[in-house]
Write a structure and sequence with these properties.
Order of helices and strands of chain A: EEEEHEHHEHEHEHEH
Number of strands of chain A: 9
Largest sheet of chain A: 9 strands, mixed
Number of domains of chain A: 1
Shape of chain A: globular
Strand content of chain A: 15-25%
Distance between the termini of chain A: 28 Å
CATH class of chain A: Alpha Beta
CATH topology of chain A: Rossmann fold
Oligomer: homodimer
Radius of gyration of chain A: 17 Å
Strand order of the largest sheet of chain A: 1-2-3-5-4-6-7-8-9
CATH architecture of chain A: 3-Layer(aba) Sandwich
Chain lengths: 255, 255
């Protein structure tokens, strides 16, 4: 097991931002600048083509860190951010761009490539959780949330299915093909978001993935609009959902 | 046109509560105890078998009145609350209870009876809006919201479809049969809620009604659980949705 190495620290929009590496995997940990000794952790994963510090990540982190006093960690996915692309990554990306240019559906390529990336990334998230829980400000007993949309759902569904330390999870905007079997093993509360007019992911596909979660408590948020029109207020909703289940820093939470 | 007659006034859990009649129709108006001269109005309608001051109504009103400074008005539906039941009401209720006792689907009876009630109630809501806008603290230029679930949706969908003064509407938990044609004429922002495991309303029925709204901006909230397990946090969400579209008291709002 690799241990977590902090490589730099800086303030970031009201948060303490620490870059780290875990073996070859670069990550970022955003934390409150002050607060109780110990606080819940939320693991996030970024979307396809983005990276750990994309504004969608730092914006969501800020809701959780400055709004609720949580820690938030994100890893660069394989082939993304500060990580090298393999020949396989290059070939899959080229195939996606070719399909887009030809007006062919990108879905089957994204499903296949995300599944490949998730098989590498999910074990990295388990290892990151092991390492982050060694930090005294996080610890091994606190609740842990997961938040990942798009490719973050492709990584998160298998990860959460195999990870008993996760208390609640936010997913969305993905096909069920490689994920439904994993989703059937997830029983923690889930909030799932999809776009009603998604040009890539058919309605039935999104509804099928939501339906697959075994969670007694699950919520689906559907909004009108295309794939990229995913509304910003869903981030506020996801942060409230996580806060409902992870509780306040320093507090013991049921379940 | 009947004018609005206030019949009593009392404080109620941080709100100013005024009972009124509009012709034969009893209603309640909840208002802030202090605030700007003028504030947005939300019209609410109660569920089947309930009445204008059911705790679900006063609880939702409190979110809007004490949380956002709005006025909230609810009418007793025909055959409900302080209004007499007709022989037709008695016959429909008996048929519903008979179906329930026999383990037969209640849906077709509820759809038929709610449609009957909505044809009486929707014109009453138009008249109530006319009358309430004569009050100086509401006025004719402010934004107006609508919030009704269950029977409140059966009344609200035809009402909002025919009422250009409504700015945003919250609906949920109803069959599309008598409503989809009206929903196709609704273009204001809508938040719609349904239960994924509703024992009365099939999933496809709820999704079909959501799909029917012509609104460019619409959101669907689905939660796991049976019809009556509708979660309380959806009321918070609906209040935030209305606040997003109605704005602050004393403020001019786009659209």
């Amino acid at each position: 097991m690799h241990s977590l190495q902090f490589t730099s620290e800086s303030p970031s929009d009201g948060m303490r931002e620490r870059d780290f590496t875990l073996g070859d995997v670069p990550g970022v940990l955003w934390s409150p600048t002050s607060g109780p000794d110990r606080a819940p952790l939320v693991l996030m994963a970024h979307g396809g083509g983005n990276h750990k510090k994309h504004p969608a990540m730092s914006g969501r982190a800020r809701l959780l860190v400055t709004g609720h006093g949580y820690h938030v960690a994100v890893l660069d996915a394989p082939g993304h951010g500060d990580r090298p692309r393999t020949a396989h990554d290059e070939a899959e990306i080229a195939d996606m761009l070719r399909a887009r240019a030809a007006g062919e559906p990108e879905g089957p390529i994204i499903v296949r490539y995300n599944d490949h990336l998730a098989r590498i990334a999910a074990p990295e998230y388990h290892a990151a959780l092991d390492a982050l829980q060694q930090l005294p400000e996080i610890g091994t007993h606190g609740p842990v949330g997961y938040w990942g949309i798009n490719m973050g759902t492709a990584i998160g569904v298998p990860f959460v299915a195999a990870e008993p330390r996760i208390t609640a999870a936010v997913f969305g905007q993905h096909w069920p093909d490689a994920l439904a079997e994993h989703a059937k093993r997830i029983t923690v509360p889930v909030e799932f978001a999809m776009q009603w007019d998604d040009e890539h992911i058919p309605r039935e596909a999104g509804l099928a993935l939501f339906d697959a979660f075994a969670s007694k408590e699950k919520s689906l948020h559907v909004n009108s609009g295309a794939h990229k029109e995913f509304p910003r207020f869903e981030a506020d909703s996801a942060a409230r959902f996580l806060a409902r289940h992870l509780g306040r820093p320093g507090e013991r939470v049921n379940g």
